[in-house]
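Could you help me review a protein record that somebody else here produced? This is what I was given.
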Amino acid sequence: MNPQPGEVWLADLGLAAKPRPIVIVSRYDPDPPRALVIYVPLTTQNRRSSYEVALPKLRFLDRDSVANVQGIGSIPTVRLERRLGKLPTAVLDAIQRALAFALNMETKA
């Protein structure tokens, strides 16, 4: 299994005994040294902050959701349960900009 950036998966995060939707944000690597992916969790609780990216209506999500970049983490790929779909490129770009903001890695012009 080699999840791609921008894919949304259901994953066992060990929270409340139910799988949660996440978006893969780690770069594509056909031969990673570890079976881990970096992810951002999706939530329905929108606090309208710079640490969140609102998602458009997606056929594979049943509720309005946001990507919460403050919840960034890594997870073994064996805990990925099911691929739900893929985000539009523009949404993944917005998540990457929010991550750069959150990690204070914005490029200086």
Summary: The chain has one domain: 7-102. Residues 89-102 form the longest helix (14 residues). The radius of gyration is 13 Å.
